[in-house]
Design brief:
By secondary structure, this protein is mostly helical. The chain has a domain of 32 residues. Helix content is 57%, strand content 0%. It has two helices and no strands. It starts with 13 loop residues before the first helix and ends in a 9-residue tail after the last helix.
């Protein structure tokens, strides 16, 4: 068991715990799995926003400023 400072407990259903295991790699803690999933979700959201901006906004080339 890894002892981490500033640790809290969250409750999830057993089914959710099993789903988390599927995203883990050998030796991963649940904290590592959850952090990786959150980082991936953040990157997808950033990409979604960037793509929306590229599709909807008008840009002025730097040489025209």
């Amino acid at each position: 068991m890894v002892v981490m400072p500033d640790v809290t407990t969250i409750s999830v259903r057993r089914e959710t715990k099993e789903l988390l295991k599927e995203f883990g790699k050998k030796g991963d803690t649940y904290d590592q799995i959850i952090r990786r999933l959150v980082e991936q979700a953040s990157m997808r959201e950033l990409n979604r926003r960037w793509n929306r901006i590229l599709e909807e906004e008008k840009f002025i080339p730097l040489e025209n400023l």
